[in-house]
UniProtKB/TrEMBL annotation:
This is NADH dehydrogenase subunit F. Keywords: Chloroplast, Membrane, NAD, Plastid, Translocase, Transmembrane, Transmembrane helix, Transport. Its main location: membrane. GO terms for biological process: ATP synthesis coupled electron transport; electron transport coupled proton transport. It comes from Rytidosperma pauciflorum. It is found in: Membrane.
Length: 230
């Protein structure tokens, strides 16, 4: 990887490599990462992946499947840095996904689908960080988000399980957040852990995601006040 990036970065400014072909190859690599990490407009598969058991959903959304696209872009960042069009495209896609995922998450009543769209939004944060060249902040948020989101998915599984004696076995009912009022007396430990995971993802200090989000926001402001304000 290191030798490949060094050669490419030396040749691109000197027209040793066709810039159009290099941009096309970089775009195709980026497109693969967009599909893998559920970024706009290739995000529609992510909520439907919530049909599996909750521990599997936690594994997919926290540490493995969707994180692969972000990690791929992070490894290829030394190549993308020499291609301003690709870097701007990464930032744009990350910003759109960030807002779209958060908006869709607010509109859901299914707890697992809401968490899925939340994952999409947080991956948009990481994509934005990579687009502005903030490699460390993106990977830092990847790790902090993994712990917090795994906690939320496992907590949601406990909540869904505790709903079954009350509403029966029906995904339309036991995953419906509208019907989940007053559950704290049934799952007091889950209530506490779910609250901590939610506060962390919201960026409340001194929890983990606060530090990674703060680094992304500060780097965004230094890169462009436009991204910082957004």
């Amino acid at each position: 990887f290191r030798d490949l990036f060094k050669i490419a970065n030396n040749w691109i400014p000197n027209n040793g490599i066709n810039s159009l072909l290099t941009t096309l190859c970089a775009f195709l690599l980026f497109l693969g990462a967009v599909a893998k990490s559920a970024q706009f407009p290739l995000h529609v598969w992510l909520p439907d992946a919530m049909e599996g058991p909750t521990p599997i959903s936690a594994l997919i959304h926290a540490a493995t499947m969707v994180a692969a696209g972000i990690f791929l872009l992070a490894r290829l960042l030394p190549l993308f840095i020499s291609l301003p069009f690709i870097m701007n495209l990464i930032s744009l896609v990350g910003t759109i996904t960030l807002f779209l995922g958060a908006t869709l998450a607010l509109a859901q009543t299914d707890i697992k689908r809401s968490l899925a769209y939340s994952t999409m939004s947080q991956l948009g944060y990481m994509m934005l960080a990579l687009g502005i060249g903030s490699y460390q902040a993106a990977l830092f948020h990847l790790i902090t988000h993994a712990y917090s989101k795994a906690l939320l998915f496992l907590g949601s599984g406990s909540i869904i399980h505790s709903m079954e004696p009350l509403v029966g076995y029906s995904p339309d009912k036991n995953q419906n957040m509208v019907l989940m009022g007053g559950l704290r007396k049934y799952v007091p430990i889950t209530r506490t852990t779910f609250l901590w995971g939610t506060l962390s993802l919201c960026g409340i200090p001194p929890l983990a995601c606060f530090w990674s989000k703060d680094e992304i926001l500060s780097n965004s402001w230094l890169y462009s006040p436009f991204f910082g304000i957004i």
